[in-house]
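Hi R.,

Here's the input for the flavin-adenine dinucleotide complex you asked about:
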Amino acid sequence: MSFDYDLFVIGGGSGGVRAARVAAATGAKVALAEEYRMGGTCVIRGCVPKKLMVFASGYSEMFDDARAYGWDVQDGPFDWGRFRKKLHAELDRLEGIYRKLLDGSGVEICDARAVIKDAHTVSLSTGKDVTAKHILVATGGHPVVPEIDGAELGITSNEVFLLNEMPKSILIVGGGYIASEFAGILNGLGVEVTQFYRGAQILRGFDDEARGLVAEGMRDKGIDLHLGTNIVEMRQATAEDRNEEGHAEGMPMEQGRPASVAPSGDGKGIWVKATNGTTKVYDQVLFATGRTPNTTNLGLQEAGITVGRRGEIVVDEFSQTNIPSIYAIGDVTNRVQLTPVAIREGMAFVETVFKGNPTPVDHALIPSAVFTQPELGTVGLTEEEARDIEPVEIYCSSFKPMNHAFAGREDRVLMKLVVSKETRKVLGCHIVADHAGEMIQLVGIAVKMGATKEDFDRTVAVHPTMAEELVTMKEPLRSA
Ligand code: FAD
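And here is the predicted structure with flavin-adenine dinucleotide in place:
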């Protein structure tokens, strides 16, 4: 049977673009459909714009630090309009690069929504049906908003980058990494940030000691974090609500970008009633309460593809669905929702299907960072996970680093190793510090190689650094 393509990829995000390019490089005839903007969540409304906002927000503390180090600098207001214009120009540039890379690899781009019709057929929103020997679903996910009265007044991470005005105050709902990162970003940009999380501590799933220190640091920097708290009800605020609260208007911005999000509640703000009995008016409410796979109206049921409880496409270790010609990678499979993982899954798919080298995806010991302020870097098991599996030793050091101490800042850092008592292997490493993401990338190599505590100890320290603590912690703080 002959097909229009060897591979049809649905979704031009991190996983889809990489898989399409690498498959085309093997000589396969490849097409890719993207319904929104090339680059997907990571480039257009995830990692990249978020990290640029992290950088922007970090400057607020630098004025104080610079003065402490002898510089004569004055604080100035943050100009969201100026930053936003540059941010979107950068995203446009990156999107252009993604298109060029696909073009250059010989991948045919379809600017359309694609829906699966059967095991080998895809219907495009342009009205065309195309056939392919293999179909790869890489449609990613989207934010979910809780079912609360008035929730439609809030925004999600998708809209943050499009705000045409920085709110003066914001309520962020959620305790995951996206909620916590935006709390830090907006706080750093001068927004009055309140964060509600219904659980007992933010960053569930990360090491308890590390998440505790991050939460403490966030509070010290001015975030009004409320744990065990949620919204009961929200509605557009009235003039009386605002008068009672004494709120000012949002900060003005430069006009001019077409796609933008207006202030919530007609600029009057949003009145929120919380489970702790308080009521308050916020300029914006941001829901970062989880993400769900993009699997609705994708033709999955019609094609007989198994979908899991959380709406994810169920795949095996080779990313193959129950329909042999259809594979799925990235966030739509709800395995590990990170860009480098989606890319890995895409590469493993090509290795398996187009290079005749069956390659399961390795999801073990993935290093990752949370770009909160303070930043968290982590790889391997948390102390809590490890001690449930085997006896462990905990090496831990928490201190005020020299740059902060000199500047008179209170921020402490954490360097923590979870070590197996029996094998001496470092099972986990957790760092809370400036640039923890950069550090954990390198520690990740050692941990992935199976380094023992003694291997760490044999490594000479780099002095003076924060990370030298990782190779100089002689005695365990505790055994568990
Ligand atoms: P996506 O990148 O989401 O791409 C899917 C694409 O498919 C989208 O472009 C979508 O428009 C398109 N699409 C969907 N349905 C169809 C259809 N039917 N037809 C055609 N096209 C379709 N990860 C990190 O590693 N580090 C970070 O710091 C980080 N920060 C993040 C911050 C935020 C705010 C968010 C939301 C995510 C962040 N992530 C981060 C996660 C990361 O963005 C995702 O894991 C990654 O983008 C997943 O890639 P993907 O290819 O599976 O899907």
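One thing worth noting: The longest strand covers residues 129-137.

Cheers,
M.
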